[in-house]
Every structure is written in structure tokens, then in C-alpha cells.
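Chapter summary example: a protein plus magnesium ion.
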Amino acid sequence: MKTILLRMGELFLKGENRSFFENTLVNNIKLKLSGLKYKLEKTRGRLLITEFDDCDELVCRLKKVFGLYSLSIADELLAEVDEILNYFKKIDVYNKTFKIDVNRADKTFPINSMEMAARIGEVVLKQNAKARVELYKPDLLFCVDIRSNGKAYVYHEVIKCQGGLPLSTSGKALLLLSGGIDSPVAGYMMAKRGLRLEAIHFHSYPYTSPEAKQKVLTLAKKLSEYIDEIKVHCISFTKIQEEIHSKCAPEFMITLMRRIMMRISERVAKKNNLGAIITGESLGQVASQTMQSMTVTEQVVMDLPIFRPCVGLDKEDIIKIAKDIDTFETSILPYEDCCTVFLPKNPIIKPKISKVLNQEKMLDIESLVNEALEGEEIISIVNEN
Ligand code: ATP
Ligand code: MG
């Protein structure tokens, strides 16, 4: 019987919490596979999928489930010596080189792994006089996994999956999602650590176009392939930018904007029970991403952690992930972000908090924040597979 074997990465490390992680993973898998025909079974250390029709579609979706480490498409046999040897009697290796790899998870199986591999090898060679065993670079690899559920699984390939932790097992957080390359990657990286996401996006309509907003929704849609569903809180930043532009020194524009973005983000996070704020900042990438800028920006966030998973990555590394998760092509579409609209010529690179506070005295921040929150538009994006 054809079976898809699923391996559950880091879950082994979790001791007492293991069943919580496993159950969450199973629920996430069921959600991901909805609409498809299959049967899912738990055994020690593995999940098994049988009775399916569309193997390609199943594998394609399973590769987007966090917490799954790898999978293999296998033939399921009874874990009995003769049964396994009979299976190999019907295998033709077409004069190619081959390797038999036996893993005996069930130590009550009467023959050890090495010996079983040798016995299988003999059977194969008997049918295929020109075939040859090759341990390093065989044309054909046969892995035989003998499990303690009384079954053995034969497969050729281990297909890498996402790894990470099952979605939800770390809680929920708010992603600051711009239209750029970095923030979708940051969201993906934290989702992979078990965080469900909501997103917040600041736009400066009519200075920014409706296409710029649509681009962000497209990015959210791409992320939803991994996290099922993502609510996007769209906030107009226009009035705030106009106020800063008319009342404050231009070189502080970005710092002031970012502090207000953070204040609004924290309010949205608190209201929606989101336990952290995520940004796509990377140290030194632009003026607003120096240590000093980050210090001044994060001071306004009272009691949530800020996660910046891209902080230590080179742009090249970030782009590689963006390509892997298929957000790159959307991110490079040439629509302006709200941050670029009133961009000063010489932004301050190492802002001093005292000077920033002086600038903020020119603004009625509390009312600006409240007004922005009143105009919040929430768009729910659901993955349709
Ligand atoms: P990105 O590629 O993610 O846009 P960036 O390199 O352009 O990042 P900045 O514009 O300084 O850098 O933004 C830093 C981070 O601030 C972004 O990664 C994102 O998390 C957040 N951010 C910036 N602009 C917005 C916006 N318009 N709406 C929501 N979050 C934003
Ligand atoms: Mg940006």
C-alpha cells in the first residue's frame, strides 16, 4: 500500500509538551489538506498518510506545513523478513547500481539492519545479474524503515519540508508588513517558529497608490499559504506624515514616523491579543536601521518584545528566502511605500532621544494615533490552496 511517511523535526525535543505539539501539528495538517481524500494516522515518531488519490497535491501542501521535517513516499509492507524479501524479488533494478539502507526502529525484528540489508542485496542481485552494489553514489537507493507498528516502509527519497515548529504553538504576533522584500521574509521566519500572524500596513493614500496597497495584500496572500489566514490591519498614515512634514525638522522625519508606527502597532497588538511585534529590519541596511535608531524607535513600545529575525542577515540571504517563499517578484514591483513619500535628503543616522523628544513636542501624538486607529480597515486574507 502506498503511504506518505511524515517526520516531525524538533518535536522530539519537547519532553512533556510533546503531545501538545503533536496534536497541534496534526490539526494544522488536517486544515492544510482539507478537501483532499486521505487517511492520517499517528504512530511512534511518525505520521502516516494512506488511502489518498492525489499524491502530488498532498506533497505540495505538506511541504508548507511548519513542524514537518521531511517526508517520503513509501510502499508499506508487513515487518516480516519473508514479506520484505518477497517484495524485493519483484523489483527490477535494470542493471543499475544500487544501495539498500535498512533502519530497524523495531528492535524485536529478528535480524539486525546490516544483515537484513545484505539479505535484501542478495535477493536483488539474484534477479539482476548485471546489477551492482554501490554504497557511495548508487543509481538507486532503497531505504527500508522497519517500525514498531508491525510495518516496514520502503522508499527512495527523503523530501525536505519546512521544519520549524507547528503554527500556533508559540502564540500570535503582529507583523509590520510593508511592500518591501524584508518584512514578508521576517513574517515567514517567525511563523516558522510557531507564531500565527496578523499584519499591520501603513499607507499614505492618495500619495501612495491603490496598487501599492494591493501589492501588500498580494504579499499577505503569499504568506497565507504557510499560515492559512492573515488579517491585515490597514492604517492611513497620511495625516501623520503631513503633520510631521509641516511641523518637525526634516532630518527627523523617519525616526518620528517609525516611533508613531510602533505606538500604533502596539495598540493594535494589545487590542487583538498579539504577543509580539515583528519587523523586517536588518542592522545597518538603511539610516533607520542603526542600533541608535532601533533604540530610539523601540523605546515607545512599552511591554511587547520586538522580533527582528532579519537583523543579522545580508540582503542576499533575505532575497534567497524571499525567492524560496515566492514573495520576491511581488516585493520588487515598483510601487512607492509610505516611508518613501516624504523622504528627507539627509535623515539622521544616530538620533539622540532628547532631540527626538523635542521634535515630538510639536505634535499631538495621542490624537494622531487615535485618529489613525479610528480609520483602521481590516482585510482578512484566507488561503485557498
Ligand atoms: P522592507 O523591505 O520590509 O520594506 P526596508 O528595508 O524597506 O524593509 P524600512 O522601510 O526601514 O526597511 O522598514 C523597516 C521595517 O519597518 C519593515 O521591514 C517593516 O517591518 C516596517 N515597515 C516599514 N514601512 C512600513 C509600512 N508602510 N507598513 C508597515 N510596516 C512598515
Ligand atoms: Mg520598506
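Key point: The pocket of magnesium ion (ligand 2) is lined by residues 178, 180, 337, 339 (CB under 6 Å).
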